[in-house]
Amino acid sequence: VLEKSNEYDILVSSGGVSMGKYDFVKKILHEYDYEIIINKTAIKPGSPLMVARNENCTIFGMPGYPAA
User: Fold this and answer.
1) Where is the MoaB/Mog domain (predicted)?
2) 31 contacts: CB under 8 Å, gap ≥ 6
């Protein structure tokens, strides 16, 4: 998906943005030279929200857990 991200202005991802051992989205975004703009929020539910961008695309990482 990230290899194709230059074709899109915005991508939305569900899950993988919290602090668990299987949450790899932030690490992968760093490898693709994305800047993390928002790492998490102070609202509950919804705290693990993440926003990242590079020169071509902005990615919104939403929590995967339905209650979040």
Assistant:
1) 3-68
2) none
Instruction: Let me know if residue 68 belongs to a domain.
Output: no
> Domain total for the chain?
1
* 35 found inside a domain: yes
Residue 31 belongs to a domain: yes
Predicted pLDDT at 53: 94
Token pair belonging to 31: 């490898």
Q: Is 14 helix (H, G, I), strand (E, B) or coil?
A: strand
Among candidate residues 22, 17, 58, the one with its CA nearest the CA of residue 37: 58
pTM (2 d.p.): 0.82
For residue 19, what are the domain limits? 2-62
- The Cα 62–Cα 47 span in angstroms is 9
